[in-house]
Amino acid sequence: MKNEMIMAINSICVERELEPQVVFEAIEAALVSAHRRRYNTTANVTAQVDQKTGAMKIFVEQEVVATVEDEQLQISLLDARAIDTTADIGGVVLVESTPTDFGRIAAQTAKQVILQRIREAERDAILQRYQGRVGEIVHCTIRNMDYSSGTVTCTIDGKAEAMLLKEDQIATERYRPNGKLRCYLVDVDKGSRGPVIRLSRTHRGLLRRLLEQEVPEIYNGAVEIKSIAREPGQRSKVAVAAMQPGVDPVGSCVGMRGVRIQAIVNELNNEKIDVVEWNPDPGQFIANALSPAKVTDVVLDDTIENRTAIVVVPDRQLSLAIGKEGQNARLSARLTGWRIDIKSEAEAEAEGLAEFAMELAKKRARLAMARARAESEDILLVAEQLLGDGEEEGEFEDEYAEAFEDEYDDEYADDEYTDEYADEATEEFDEYAAIEDYVEEGAATPVADTAPPEVLATTEAEAPAEVPAIEAAAPAEAAVPAAEADFVDEYADIEEYDEYAIYEDYDFYDEYAAYDDVEGFDDEADANDVSPTTTKSKSKAAKKGTKDRSKARPGRGKRGRSDWFGFSDDD
């Protein structure tokens, strides 16, 4: 029987996660209560339970007196010295009073006392365990919901009971029994019915702990979270700073292709998270916090009672900087701790912000100088690449000239030179060169010095003794020299000119020009891919006011307008 009791006590300790000493103390208290209930006494009663054998003993305190008047509270000196040889009148001795049977009522009382003591021990253990975990993430299982108050009851680690109040819930989330959650442990209080554990899904500490779990750089201290602003279920902003050189704080939090931040977004029911870089300069920090909007300038009023920042953004970025219903500006103000007043560039100039106008002009000038410097550097870089590093210009030209010469010799080495047209080409070149020199130098130069011999013979008789100079300011109004006039007349009679000029009289020119008057011809030609052989019949049909599609030949590819005249663009 005693061994069975020890086994039962050990089982309770394992199941309830209690120390054996706690259970034995509960049993001793139950024995004391049962003894008082059994004998209806007010004497001090103590109980002892051997933790190895399970033996139980109950002792009652009795006062040593010369004459006994109350047997439950007093004992004679002779009986007291039989228990303790050092006992004396006025002292107290412990007299064993272990009953063989407590009775049904006393046993029921002992049971209730044991259960109550074990329950209190459990509550104290939970209180001590979770008080040290305040500010951490705990894994919860939803037990039930109170639809009247909106409170969700959860169990932590399958044992402790916790409450998720309505104000601590994300509005867009839906909770179902036996659902799993990761919550932020806000507080643990000792209530009348046990510890009250409060959870939250909206606390900004939840986002901080999730970042620490997902980002190793934050966990080991390479990146520090400076501040967090959050509107649960909608959007959050996190300011981070690198504590070690060479670490990208924003990139570390976002992760490759956003895998780190996306895991947190999924945990928070698709809540958007903006990670910005913290900066000790308040102006730059405010500009970073307003991302993704681009900031032109920030004017700070850092007085203690005001602490306001006037932020100027481009006109097209004003709505983006403010955000939907002012969300972006509101989160940025919470993140930075500044009151932010956002204005467009037009509003800032209209309100006469002299400092802003001056800074804006300086920035624009610096931007223009930077662009000019970049362009000049690009030009110099290209020139250096063309000339080559450490090579002189002459060496560069000689090197490539020899390369081109060798290439030409290899390609045309087998070709034979023919002088069949050499004399004719030389005469034609000399004739054109003489006329070109004459036209360029003008009449101010003596005709005898520039004109060829055959032209001089004509001009000596007709030209006056003194040829007036052609005004450089109005060359178009100068008189045409006789030699040039004869040259124009001579080449005006060339048959080649007349040969090409007569194309204007050809019938087919007017016929094909009529296509321009046909409405929608170009669209139909592109759609049906009209071939040159069908354009003539199509133009006739167009003149009659009808559309003849019977002779169209599709499937030959698109052609240019030159195909309609019987020759292609490649001819």
What does this structure look like?
The protein has 571 residues and is of the alpha/beta class. The protein is 45% helix and 18% strand. The chain has a 5-stranded mixed barrel. Strands 1, 2, 3 and 4 form a 4-stranded mixed beta sheet that branches. The longest helix is centred in the middle third of the chain and has 34 residues, at 354-387. The protein is elongated.
Which SSEs are present, and which pair or pack?
Layout: H1 2-16, H2 20-39, E1 45-49, E2 56-65, E3 74-76, H3 77-83, E4 92-96, H4 104-131, E5 137-146, E6 151-156, E7 160-164, E8 180-191, E9 194-200, H5 204-214, H6 216-219, E10 223-231, E11 235-242, H7 249-254, H8 259-267, E12 272-277, H9 282-289, E13 297-301, E14 308-313, H10 318-322, H11 327-336, E15 339-344, H12 345-350, H13 354-387, H14 393-412, H15 422-441, H16 447-450, H17 453-462, H18 482-492, H19 495-501, H20 507-513, H21 521-528, H22 535-543
Parallel strand pairs: 2-3, 7-9, 11-12, 14-15
Antiparallel strand pairs: 1-2, 2-4, 5-6, 5-8, 6-7, 8-9, 10-11, 13-14
In short:
The protein has 571 residues and is α/β, with parallel strands linked by helices.
Q: Architecture of the domain at 2-123, CATH level 2?
A: 2-Layer Sandwich
On the 0 to 100 scale, the average pLDDT is 74
Q: Count of helices? A: 22
Q: Under CATH, the topology of the domain at 2-123 is which?
A: N Utilization Substance Protein A, Chain:P, domain 4
Please name the defining characteristics of this protein.
15 strands; 571 residues; disordered C terminus; GMP Synthetase, Chain A, domain 3; 18% strand; four-stranded mixed sheet; five-stranded mixed beta barrel; OB fold (Dihydrolipoamide Acetyltransferase, E2P); alpha/beta; 45% helix; N Utilization Substance Protein A, Chain:P, domain 4
